[in-house]
Amino acid sequence: MPHPDTESAAASARRATPALELSQLSFAYGARQVLHAVGFRVMPGEFAVLLGPNGAGKSTLFALVTRLFDARRPGSVRIFGAEMREAPGAALARLGVVFQQPTLDPDLSVIENLLYHGALHGLLRAEARRRAMHELARVELADRAGSTVRALSGGQRRRAEVARALLTRPSLLLLDEATTGLDLPSRMAVRRHVRELCATEGLAVLWATHLIEEVPEEARVIMLAAGRVQAEGSVPEVLAQAGAPDLPAAFARLTAAPAAG
Ligand SMILES: Nc1ncnc2c1ncn2[C@@H]1O[C@H](COP(=O)(O)OP(=O)(O)OP(=O)(O)O)[C@@H](O)[C@H]1O
């Protein structure tokens, strides 16, 4: 057995428990099969992009991972080793989510929204307030804590949603099209904040998008089309799997003619 000091970072990363591990995950709306035996992993500290065109199945996959949909589906969802069906409490406790549709109450202030979220998760009010102000400061919204959500710009609202998702200190953060409708500087600000959390705090992130330009160089890419994983790996690995010179070409190739079956 290698001495811990001499063991490579890559070797220890391979042994770590995945933050998210999906295996053979399938789902149908009635007779309509929309996910076909999907499987992939996201490791702690990893920024993984679930990249797929509209209708690929990204939101459906998120609904299964967050247990919004019936847990009787085939396949397994593990969060830090806890299977969602067998140990939903342990699995969900590690999870933070920013959904595609905004879910802040527009008539409450920013801080009231966050405190309400904290109360739902059993945080004491003083602790929730302390954490809320910390998270709002990190997304540069501390000075807007008392403003109603209605008075915020689109970019500020998304940043407030990220702050709220982090209130419970998740180890795995899911973001579904988190930057839809934002201008470029706002999109970059949200993505930069989340990438920093991966690098500095070991947060695992699954970022779903249909925008190729949202894929950072260092990301792991899971390309989903027609409910199937079409390619997976680092950007160079995905390019090799697609036989394409760049990501737009790989996306076009892999999403235009998904594998039949
Ligand atoms: N409630 C539903 N009932 C029936 N079909 C649905 C339902 N929700 C989604 N679908 C279908 O399932 C497929 C996958 O949709 P899903 O929303 O998961 O994809 P997506 O990749 O998130 O797309 P988008 O980027 O447009 O949100 C699509 O064909 C969609 O029409």
What does this structure look like?
Residues 20-251 form the ABC transporter domain. There is one protein chain. 36% of the residues lie in helices and 23% in strands. The radius of gyration is 19 Å and the shape is globular. Helix 4 crosses helix 5, helix 5 (125-138) packs across helix 6 and helix 8 (235-242) crosses helix 9 (247-256). The termini are far apart. It has nine helices and ten strands. The protein has 261 residues and is α/β, with parallel strands linked by helices.
Write the layout of secondary structure elements.
Elements: H1 9-15, E1 20-29, E2 32-42, E3 47-51, H2 58-65, E4 76-79, E5 82-83, H3 88-93, E6 95-98, H4 110-120, H5 125-138, H6 154-166, E7 172-176, H7 184-201, E8 204-209, E9 220-225, E10 228-234, H8 235-242, H9 247-256
Parallel strand pairs: 3-8, 3-9, 6-7, 7-8
Antiparallel strand pairs: 1-2, 1-4, 4-5, 9-10
Helix pairs in contact: 4-5, 5-6, 6-7, 8-9
This protein binds adenosine-5'-triphosphate (ATP).
Adenosine-5'-triphosphate is lined by residues 29, 32, 34, 52, 54-60, 210.
Protein name: ABC transporter ATP-binding protein
InterPro entries: AAA+_ATPase, ABC_transporter-like_ATP-bd, ABC_transporter-like_CS, ABC_transporter_ATP-binding, ABC_transprt_ATP-bd_su_PQQ, P-loop_NTPase
Pfam families: ABC_tran (PF00005)
